[in-house]
Amino acid sequence: GDSVTQMEGPVTLSEEAFLTINCTYTATGYPSLFWYVQYPGEGLQLLLKATKADDKGSNKGFEATYRKETTSFHLEKGSVQVSDSAVYFCALSSSGGGADGLTFGKGTHLIIQP
Amino acid sequence: NAGVTQTPKFQVLKTGQSMTLQCAQDMNHEYMSWYRQDPGMGLRLIHYSVGAGITDQGEVPNGYNVSRSTTEDFPLRLLSAAPSQTSVYFCASTAAWGNEQFFGPGTRLTVL
């Protein structure tokens, strides 16, 4: 079945550091890929998405590129802020077969220190 | 638009009690889902619906029932609560599976 693997946290960085959170996936067909963010005590919000190979999703300074050859969708940001502290989830939505809904990674807790 | 709403926000149950978690959306989305979030496990799909009158099981359906009598509402029923069902529950809706899913604020459930 479908699965998503992302680096476990917590990941602790200083403000203005470069961020990479790795995400790889296994899926049938051609899935859509997502990054969701969850701030403390809140639900999940879509951060960015990509629906086909080589697409780059971007939002709020975050970027991720859909790499079919390496089945990856790594999240990057050039200069993080304290306000970026949150839990980040990589997810996929498979376009063919199997259960519908999203398949999530376990989440990466990001802590940005001033 | 209110988006996706969930009630209650918090709930404490005793083992064996039953209850219904409510979920409603006002975006006219056909697709709705229930997830549970547990530490170190991410979110796991419990049940989903592709339209009124149609539901199906996700990854972890045991102990839960759902129904979809209208497009707007998708309640989740716990028939006989167990401590293993202590979790945070999120409802979500989307216009199509490849599109963004919109999540409710969650219900934090504790089963004693």
Give a written overview of the molecule.
The complex is a heterodimer of chains A (114) and B (112). Chain A has strands at residues 3-6, 11-14, 19-21, 23-26, 32-38, 44-50, 56-59, 62-65, 75-77, 86-93, 103-104, 108-113. Chain A has 114 residues and is mostly beta strands. In chain A, the strands form three sheets. In chain A, strands 2, 5, 6, 10, 11 and 12 form a six-stranded mixed beta sheet that branches. Chain B has strands spanning 4-7, 10-13, 19-25, 31-38, 42-51, 54-57, 64-66, 76-78, 87-94, 102-103, 107-111. Chain B has 112 residues and is mostly beta strands. Chain B contains no helices and eleven strands. Helix content of chain B is 0%, strand content 52%. Chain B is globular and about 35 Å long. Chain A binds chain B through residues 4, 32, 34, 36, 42-46, 49, 51, 89, 93-95, 99-107, and chain B through 31, 33, 35, 40-45, 48, 50, 56-59, 90, 92, 97-98, 100-101, 103-106.
Largest sheet of chain A: 6 strands, mixed
Give the overall pLDDT of chain A as a whole number: 91
List low-confidence stretches of chain A.
Answer: none
Secondary-structure class of chain A: mainly beta
Shape of chain B: globular
Mean pLDDT of chain B, as a whole number? Answer: 94
Low-confidence stretches of chain B: none
Question: How is the topology of this model organized?
Answer:
The complex is a heterodimer of chains A (114) and B (112).
Chain A: E1 3-6, E2 11-14, E3 19-21, E4 23-26, E5 32-38, E6 44-50, E7 56-59, E8 62-65, E9 75-77, E10 86-93, E11 103-104, E12 108-113
Parallel strand pairs in A: 2-12
Antiparallel strand pairs in A: 1-4, 3-9, 5-6, 5-10, 7-8, 8-9, 10-11, 10-12
Chain B: E1 4-7, E2 10-13, E3 19-25, E4 31-38, E5 42-51, E6 54-57, E7 64-66, E8 76-78, E9 87-94, E10 102-103, E11 107-111
Parallel strand pairs in B: 2-11
Antiparallel strand pairs in B: 1-3, 3-8, 4-5, 4-9, 5-6, 7-8, 9-10, 9-11
